[in-house]
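User: Working on a comparison across species. This one is E3 ubiquitin-protein ligase CHFR from Punica granatum. Can you predict its structure so I can line it up against the others?
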Amino acid sequence: MKEAGECSASRSSQPQFWAKLVSVDSRYPDVEISSDEMVVFSEIVSSSTDKHEWCKITRDSNQSSATLQNKSSSTILVGGEVVQREDTAVVKCGSEIVPGPAREGYLIYKFEIMPTLEFCNNRLKICIDLEHVKCSICLNVWHDVVTVAPCLHNFCNGCFSEWLRRCQERNSSVICPQCRAVIQFVGKNHFLQNIVEDILQAYSSLKRSMEEVAHLNSYASIQSNLMINSGRKRTRTNLMLDEDTESAELPCPQCGSGYGGFRCSQNTVHLQCQICGGMMPSRAGINVPQHCMGCNRAFCCAYWRAQGVTRTDSYPICNSASLKPVSERSISRIPHLAHEKNRHEQDITERCIRQMGRTLQDVISEWIGRFNRREIDRTRLGLNHADMINATTNICNECYDKLVSFLLYWFRVAMPKHYLPEDVAKREDCWYGYACRTQHHNEDHACKRNHVCRPSRGAH
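Assistant: Here's the predicted structure for E3 ubiquitin-protein ligase CHFR from Punica granatum:
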């Protein structure tokens, strides 16, 4: 019987392993994976020291994942999913693997990928004190980081959202929990969030439990940039200003007058429209969309239309088409995002639609119906809240283009081959399918291979 981590391939005297299986039980050694394809022999149950062949791990071309094949005599668990004998599953850094049909009674391994020399050389090195990446409210490492201005302190989204809510309930100025400065702006900080994720990957002991994360997310209310009034009381001098000057200093129409039965208070938080830059009050619990469900960005058109407010020189309002339900939209051209921006595949799709005697709008309407009936796998949709989106969901123009591109992929995949032009139908599938990077810089490859298909290599 071979030692743990050995494979049928020859090994050098000083192997450089690219990944390893780390046993959750510290009494058992790690399984080091040194070759691109390796059959693993290791302990399976905690009650025995016998080693058995139970999986084959093949390194994927992107070097950030691997394909695991079950070589044992029974089912195994990969990331909580059952993998039958000889079946495969994609494993990434952090994937949990159980060499048996249940967690109880079996060893548990974590799959870890070692950083390559190239990865380390190209990676920005940041030296940071862990105390400087902690939220001053919960005293834990930031989760879903938001930054406030002008003081530029950072907090967890859930922590600061609750702080903001309590300040508004007291009808007081929103001050920074850390330095007590009056806050005028708050928004998500994606750059710091990426750094936090790298830190948590390096120091797993700092990670919160799933229950803590879910609890914190339940309080998070900051989806896009918020403008916050200072709460400063207006003086008599302010009130004596002429109407034009006064209105120009107010964030939105509802700050100066009541529309639709609502008027902003001194502490009302405002959202800035993604399109026109105008302001509107952030109002939870109203049946009027203020954010695109697909990207969480704020758009003001639907809100002001519901309030009966029209555009003026002082208060811009974005076009009514900027945010509206999927079912109310129309389309006459294939989005440039379709088929991963491969213009050859876009041209083929357009020709096929004409060959079928249909229009693009007709095709998209049909597939939105299928999408609404959940006949389509939404894994690759690429929109926030993908599982919640349906025909009545309000989304922006950019997210609608992404949705149409997603639906056109499934339209092509499901299309009978006799609708394809003869030269197109004879093309072989690209090994990397829609994930192929060569199609973006090699016109010949983009044209000669079919890229509207699932990858047969790599982790996708």
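For your comparison, note: Residues 130-219 form a domain with the Herpes Virus-1 fold (CATH 3.30.40.10).

User: Helpful, thanks.
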